[in-house]
Amino acid sequence: MSNPLTVRFTGPLRSLPAAARREIVERARAQEDVAVTKVVGQILARVKNEGDAALVALARELDRADLTKLEVPREALEEARDGLDPDVRRALERTRANLETVHGAFIPRVIEIESEPGILVGRRPDPLAAVGVYAPGGRAAYPSSVLMGVVPARVAGVPEIVVCSPPGKNGLPSQVVLAAAAIGGATRVFAIGGAQAIAALAFGTETVPRVDRIVGPGNAYVAEAKRQIAGNVGIDAPAGPSEILVIGDDTANPEHVARELAAQAEHDPEASCVALVVGDGLAAQVTEALTRVVVDRGEVVSASLGSRGAVLSIESLEEAWPFAADYAAEHLMLLVREPQAALAKVRHAGTVFLGDGSSVAFGDYMTGANHVLPTAGAGRSFSGLSTLDFVRFTTYQTVTREAAARMAGDVAVLAEAEGLRNHAAAAAAFGGAK
Ligand SMILES: NC(=O)c1ccc[n+]([C@@H]2O[C@H](COP(=O)([O-])OP(=O)(O)OC[C@H]3O[C@@H](n4cnc5c(N)ncnc54)[C@H](O)[C@@H]3O)[C@@H](O)[C@H]2O)c1
Ligand SMILES: N[C@H](CO)Cc1c[nH]c[nH+]1
Ligand SMILES: [Zn+2]
């Protein structure tokens, strides 16, 4: 590593100046960056107005790729899958199977309930007709993210699943991303990245179909593009640069804490990685371990930890819970003596990892939980990606003649109170009044 690794915030949490605490908790700066907002606004307008021509031009400008075709032919997907290293294929198929098991169990079912005798109300989940899945591909290729989006969509019954991922210099997303799209069951794949991919899926172009919902993680440009098009098309949670909050008591292994921070930091210089551990001694051990455990991508890890990282000591776990609720981490890791009891204290988190066996890397790749999760505090109001993102609900009701007769009077009372006498008349007619 060329730069020595430093962590931006260290020391006791209770001594942290209010401004520093705010800076850690409000790590949304990149998405609110006016420059990003402006650039993304311009990209969306170009794609909306110029369609495919803008996509080809933006691929040249931003991805340094000369595209002859935007859509990746089906044969190229199948060739990528068939040519994949057998170990990688087996691992991707294992991820797919676990996602199918977990997301199949989480799928919402039809619910029917009688609110009164003779009045049946139902709610039926209906799969969306077409969805877009963004798979990042700038600093790293993300075949795992392809599966995290495509598999739950397929399990939910979506017939058209369109994947977009940035092209490399050869004009195609990486082979392993293409293979994952085939393994997951994507119906179409386009070599389009960044904000322009989100625009193409939201507005449609000559070759890219307009979809009903766009999901998937990405960098600050992708997250901002999803935010800006949210009025036109459904989106999942804002899933931007990765983040982790590790909470550890005296049973936490400092090297494990450090490795978890380094793992999420390697995604992006804008990743936010924070540890709150009981005792100044343990905090110092974590900071020291960080200088030893980084095995790759040192520049990215250093940039992330140096600009946003925090290793803070607390006196007891009780100090951690209000901070954790405020921070609403994408990944919350509980390296504590009684993780299940600690889980009961958690208010906001994308997903939680309990105990010393549960590295976030397992959830990132294989447990079957989804790794597309709300970031930048969005965990206070959003959940991680699931089959719920791929359905909408149709409610329905049926009222028997007898129930209609019993209800018509009170409905007329409310309709009269609103000055809507035709409603009262309709209810009375169905209730059997002459
Ligand atoms: N929250 C989650 O669930 C989750 C899951 C996986 C990955 N991630 C995050 O996804 C992100 C992946 O980012 P990435 O950069 O590797 O890939 P990416 O595909 O998100 O972004 C690459 C694209 O960004 C665009 N871009 C780059 N610089 C630009 C500029 N100056 N102006 C306009 N557009 C520009 C380009 O179009 C490029 O194709 C990381 O931040 C990672 O932490 C998050
Ligand atoms: N940690 C990422 C979500 O923030 C997901 C991921 C994909 N590959 C490895 N990790
Ligand atoms: Zn990860």
UniProtKB/TrEMBL annotation:
<feature type="binding site">
    <location>
        <position position="242"/>
    </location>
    <ligand>
        <name>substrate</name>
    </ligand>
</feature>
<keyword id="KW-0479">Metal-binding</keyword>
<dbReference type="Pfam" id="PF00815">
    <property type="entry name" value="Histidinol_dh"/>
</dbReference>
<dbReference type="InterPro" id="IPR012131">
    <property type="entry name" value="Hstdl_DH"/>
</dbReference>
<keyword id="KW-0520">NAD</keyword>
<feature type="binding site">
    <location>
        <position position="264"/>
    </location>
    <ligand>
        <name>Zn(2+)</name>
    </ligand>
</feature>
<keyword id="KW-0862">Zinc</keyword>
<keyword id="KW-0028">Amino-acid biosynthesis</keyword>
<feature type="active site" description="Proton acceptor">
    <location>
        <position position="330"/>
    </location>
</feature>
<keyword id="KW-0368">Histidine biosynthesis</keyword>
<dbReference type="InterPro" id="IPR016161">
    <property type="entry name" value="Ald_DH/histidinol_DH"/>
</dbReference>
<keyword id="KW-0560">Oxidoreductase</keyword>
<feature type="binding site">
    <location>
        <position position="364"/>
    </location>
    <ligand>
        <name>Zn(2+)</name>
    </ligand>
</feature>
<feature type="binding site">
    <location>
        <position position="196"/>
    </location>
    <ligand>
        <name>NAD(+)</name>
    </ligand>
</feature>
<feature type="active site" description="Proton acceptor">
    <location>
        <position position="331"/>
    </location>
</feature>
<feature type="binding site">
    <location>
        <position position="423"/>
    </location>
    <ligand>
        <name>Zn(2+)</name>
    </ligand>
</feature>
<feature type="binding site">
    <location>
        <position position="267"/>
    </location>
    <ligand>
        <name>Zn(2+)</name>
    </ligand>
</feature>
<feature type="binding site">
    <location>
        <position position="267"/>
    </location>
    <ligand>
        <name>substrate</name>
    </ligand>
</feature>
<feature type="binding site">
    <location>
        <position position="364"/>
    </location>
    <ligand>
        <name>substrate</name>
    </ligand>
</feature>
<comment type="pathway">
    <text>Amino-acid biosynthesis; L-histidine biosynthesis; L-histidine from 5-phospho-alpha-D-ribose 1-diphosphate: step 9/9.</text>
</comment>
<dbReference type="GO" id="GO:0004399">
    <property type="term" value="F:histidinol dehydrogenase activity"/>
</dbReference>
<feature type="binding site">
    <location>
        <position position="264"/>
    </location>
    <ligand>
        <name>substrate</name>
    </ligand>
</feature>
<comment type="function">
    <text>Catalyzes the sequential NAD-dependent oxidations of L-histidinol to L-histidinaldehyde and then to L-histidine.</text>
</comment>
<feature type="binding site">
    <location>
        <position position="418"/>
    </location>
    <ligand>
        <name>substrate</name>
    </ligand>
</feature>
<feature type="binding site">
    <location>
        <position position="331"/>
    </location>
    <ligand>
        <name>substrate</name>
    </ligand>
</feature>
<protein>
    <recommendedName>
        <fullName>Histidinol dehydrogenase</fullName>
        <ecNumber>1.1.1.23</ecNumber>
    </recommendedName>
</protein>
<feature type="binding site">
    <location>
        <position position="219"/>
    </location>
    <ligand>
        <name>NAD(+)</name>
    </ligand>
</feature>
<feature type="binding site">
    <location>
        <position position="423"/>
    </location>
    <ligand>
        <name>substrate</name>
    </ligand>
</feature>
<feature type="binding site">
    <location>
        <position position="134"/>
    </location>
    <ligand>
        <name>NAD(+)</name>
    </ligand>
</feature>
<comment type="similarity">
    <text>Belongs to the histidinol dehydrogenase family.</text>
</comment>
<dbReference type="InterPro" id="IPR022695">
    <property type="entry name" value="Histidinol_DH_monofunct"/>
</dbReference>
